[in-house]
C-alpha cells in the first residue's frame, strides 16, 4: 500500500481533527494555469479546503518565481497558519522560506520538489517524477519491440523539477535500447500552444517520416503536438507514437480516437494529503515524513478511455 493510500485510508480516524482545522487559514502559491492538470490541481485544492472548513488564500504566480516569492512574503505578513507551494522552478527559495520558518509557518510543497535544505519545509507531496519518465520510456521500449525508433521530446519548463526528473527517468529507461534515440529535444513550457509550435519545428527539421515517437513531459504539450502532426498530413498515434504524462481528460479523448498511445497519471489531489498532514500537526504536533509519494499509473489506448474521460472531465481540467 502506498503512503498516499495509507493517508487516505486513515481519513476516518482524522474526523475529529478536521473539526479542529476549522478557522485555520492557509496560503496557496500556485504556479499558474499553464495546463489542464494545473487547473485541476487548483480546483481540487479549493474543494479540499472548503470541505475541511479551512480558509484558503490563493495566489496565481503566472509562471513567475518572483510572483511566488512576493505571495509567500504576503502570506507571512498576514500571519497565515500554513503555506502550500507549487514551485515553478527548483532553485532560489532559501531566503523566502527562511522567512516563513522564522515566523513558525509550516510550508508544504505540492507536486514539485526544490533544491533547498529540508528544514525549510515540512514535507513534499509529489509523485516520483523520475519514475513517471521511466514508466513512459519502458512503455515505448516495449511498444516498438526492438524496431529502430527516433524520438522527439517536448520538455517542460526549463529548470523545473518535473522537466529535469521526467527527462532523467525516460533516458534511464531507454538507455539499454540502442534502437531508441532522442534526436530532437526542446522545451514546450508545459503549454498546449508551445507544444504545437515546437512540434511543427520538429516536423520541419526532421521530416515526419524520420520521427517514430514523441515523448512529451505533459499531456497538454502532447495535445498541441497532435494538432501539428495532423496539420502536417500525418496520423498521430499511428505514424508517430505519442506517450506523455498527467492523464488529463483531453489525452484520453485523443487515445479513444486513436491519436495518442499512452499517458502516465499524475493525480491532481496533492492538497488532500497535505491538509491531512497539517490537521495532524495542528492537533498534537505530529510531524510527517519528508516525502509523501503519490501513485503513477499507466493508461494506454487499450483502456476504456471514454469512461476515464467521463470520470475526470468535471475535476476542473
TrEMBL record:
It comes from the Bacteria. Residues 1-21 form the signal peptide. This is ABC transporter substrate-binding protein. Belongs to the bacterial solute-binding protein 2 family. Its main location: other. Residues 27-272 form the Periplasmic binding protein domain. It holds the Pfam family Peripla_BP_4. InterPro entries: Peripla_BP_I (IPR028082), SBP_2_dom (IPR025997), YtfQ_transport (IPR054837). NCBIfam families: YtfQ_transport (NF041827). Keywords: Signal. It is found in: Cell envelope. It comes from Alloyangia mangrovi. One of its GO terms (molecular function) is carbohydrate binding. GO terms for cellular component: cell envelope.
Amino acid at each position: 500500500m502506498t503512503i498516499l493510500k495509507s493517508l487516505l485510508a486513515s481519513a476516518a480516524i482524522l474526523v475529529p481533527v478536521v473539526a479542529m482545522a476549522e478557522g485555520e487559514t492557509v496560503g496557496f502559491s500556485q504556479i499558474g494555469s499553464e495546463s489542464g492538470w494545473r487547473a485541476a490541481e487548483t480546483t481540487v485544492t479549493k474543494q479540499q479546503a472548503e470541505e475541511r472548513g479551512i480558509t484558503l488564500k490563493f495566489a496565481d504566480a503566472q509562471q513567475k518565481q518572483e510572483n511566488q516569492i512576493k505571495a509567500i512574503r504576503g502570506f507571512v505578513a498576514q500571519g497565515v497558519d500554513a503555506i502550500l507551494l507549487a514551485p515553478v522552478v527548483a532553485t532560489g527559495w532559501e531566503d523566502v522560506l527562511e522567512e516563513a520558518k522564522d515566523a513558525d509557518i509550516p510550508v508544504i510543497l505540492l507536486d514539485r520538489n526544490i533544491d533547498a535544505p529540508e528544514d525549510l519545509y515540512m514535507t513534499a507531496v509529489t509523485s516520483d517524477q523520475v519514475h513517471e519518465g521511466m514508466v513512459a520510456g519502458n512503455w515505448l521500449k516495449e511498444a516498438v519491440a526492438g524496431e529502430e525508433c527516433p524520438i522527439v521530446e517536448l520538455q517542460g519548463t526549463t529548470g523545473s523539477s518535473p522537466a529535469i526528473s521526467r527527462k532523467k527517468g525516460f533516458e534511464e529507461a531507454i538507455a539499454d535500447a540502442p534502437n531508441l534515440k532522442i534526436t530532437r529535444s526542446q522545451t514546450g513550457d508545459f503549454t498546449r500552444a508551445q507544444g504545437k509550435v515546437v512540434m511543427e519545428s520538429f516536423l520541419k527539421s526532421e521530416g515526419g517520416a524520420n520521427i517514430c515517437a514523441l515523448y512529451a513531459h505533459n499531456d497538454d504539450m502532447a495535445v498541441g503536438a497532435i494538432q501539428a502532426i495532423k496539420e502536417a498530413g500525418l496520423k498521430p498515434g499511428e505514424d508517430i507514437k505519442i506517450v506523455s504524462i498527467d492523464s488529463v481528460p483531453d489525452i484520453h479523448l485523443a487515445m479513444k480516437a486513436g491519436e495518442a498511445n499512452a499517458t502516465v497519471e499524475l493525480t491532481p489531489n496533492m492538497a488532500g494529503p497535505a491538509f491531512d498532514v497539517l490537521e495532524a500537526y495542528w492537533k498534537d504536533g505530529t510531524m510527517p515524513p519528508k516525502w509523501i509519494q503519490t501513485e503513477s499509473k499507466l493508461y494506454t489506448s487499450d483502456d476504456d478511455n471514454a469512461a476515464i474521460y467521463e470520470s475526470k472531465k468535471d475535476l476542473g481540467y
